[in-house]
Amino acid sequence: xxxxxxxxxxxxxxxxxxxxxxxxxxxxxxxxxxxxxxxxxxxxxxxxxxxxxxxxxxxxxxxxxxxxxxxxxxxxxxxxxxxxxxxxxxxxxxxxxxxxxxxxxxxxxxxxxxxxxxxxxxxxxxxxxxxxxxxxxxxxxxxxxxxxxxxxxxxxxxxxxxxxxxxxxxx
Length: 171
Hints:
Blueprint: H1 18-42, H2 49-56, H3 60-66, H4 70-92, H5 103-120, H6 122-137, H7 146-151, H8 153-169
């Protein structure tokens, strides 16, 4: 994925304006949203990069400038969707809101979050299942999954906090 660095004059190192950068971000999000929809509808293996480019309204070359290959796109979609879900969860149930809750209460809190996810985010769970199968069969290297794992930090933090609280209150 292309990354732009801003200079002091509101230009990027590549000479792009803020407006161009915003347009690229919007285009990239459209690619991610389109790929997610197609991957959920048809499964990852059945969807081609050409199909994604066409459905997103971008050229094939543009898609490949953003994502070198399908695996990179698949991982970026998964990271984007989990980050969006976890950001929403953190906004409605911030980690700081559980600081003084005993470990058992934190466990119930976490279970409620999972129940909400199963009720309201079935497409994400379906995609995640397809994702796990895809990366396993494609022999994706651990290094390629770093962006995805980074998107799950909130879950790791919540689970670690629950574990530490359980040790503290001996539950």
